[in-house]
Amino acid sequence: MIERMLGAWRSGESAGLATVVRTFRSAPREPGAAMLVTADGSVMGSVSGGCVEGAVYDLAREAIAGTPPTLETFGVSDDDAFAVGLSCGGILDVFIEALSPRTFPELEALAADLADDRPVALATVVGHPDASRVGAHLVVRADETLGTLGSPVADLRVGDDARGMLAQGGTGVLECGPEGERLGSGMRVFVHSFAPAPRMLVFGATAHAAALARQGAFLGFRVTVCDARPVFATAERFPGVEVVVDRPDRYLAAQLAAGAVDGRTAICVLTHDPKFDVPLLEVALRGPRVAYLGAMGSRRTHDDRARRLREAGVTDAELKRLRSPLGLDLGARTPEETAVSIAAEIIAARWGGSGAALAEASGPIHRANDLASPWAHDSRTISSGALSGRSPRHDG
Predict the structure, then answer these.
(1) Integer Cα distance of 196 and 169 in angstroms
(2) What is the DSSP string of 268-300?
(3) Does the first or last residue of the chain, that is N or C, have fewer Cβ atoms within 10 Å of its Cβ?
(4) Where are the beta strands (DSSP E) in the chain?
(5) Which sign does the torsion angle of CA 351, 353, 355, 359 carry?
(6) Is residue 207's pLDDT more than 50?
(7) What kind and span of H or E run contains 109?
(8) Higher-scoring residue by pLDDT: 293, 380
């Protein structure tokens, strides 16, 4: 999408950009989902998976023609969801704006950050008492900002809170005062965090590892396969992912020391050999908490592994962090099916899913996001300052 946006931007012609900024109930897309409509009427992306695309397309065309930026709500209740086109009964807030070098001069800098995999957030004013400030953009980096939300004071205050959201991978709407006051209302800012892809560390260069590496890449992970045996850990067997030849425990310890493993990392131990997986799991279980830590093996293998880990000094509380045998009960047999089982458990851990069949469950299909989760992309309205790690302040 960003490449297409940049192409339209460089052409000098306006395009229409529609972005989901907030969702409620069973909305089909997450905040940050976007649709781009170019001057010739071409479309890329989606804001609803088809439900309200026609209405959003028309609004994007109006933005190209000169209509001011606007925040539109689609979907009100289950009773009239079919009338507005959102048949799932959810609610979407969609911000529609014109995209051009005049309206968004900082786009090229944002695209460069994304291309280089640098963490960056984009703050966009989607509501303000002064209509001329709606649509203003601020590109927020770790050490600087580009653009303006209408005043240096607002840039400083919102930039500070946007960095807090970026640090947690949070995407959502900030509610604050007209100049970014944390105790106030009137300005709404959509903050879209672009954090580097989460890592998946796969230990053991096996056929199951090859299948899981493909699944991990498909899910958007930055995958590394590590094995101490050079004859098995080759680029030919694992195309498109990083391959490391090293003792698994030594490699993981080095990655932890370098700060290259965080709360979004998934660690999958497929070595199935105690001389490798016990030292590796000892390092993993005593390190910082990661999003997912699982080990392959039968229940007998798990019992033997747990005994060895306890003998090495790992506590029962630490062992509770380990998912073993890893994966959901899908009846998997082949390496590819097993990889789906593991990936399904990672997804369930990410979003709090039960792994049960949806047809046999009740309640909402999509769970409310939780900012406490390192995976989360929040769709709620967030009080400004809630993510800064400090108490709210009074700002004049």
Answers:
(1) 9
(2) EE----HHHHHHHHHHHHHS---SEEEE---HH
(3) C
(4) 15-24, 34-37, 43-45, 70-74, 91-99, 120-127, 137-140, 145-147, 172-176, 187-194, 199-203, 222-227, 242-245, 266-269, 292-295, 381-383
(5) negative
(6) yes
(7) helix 107-115
(8) 293
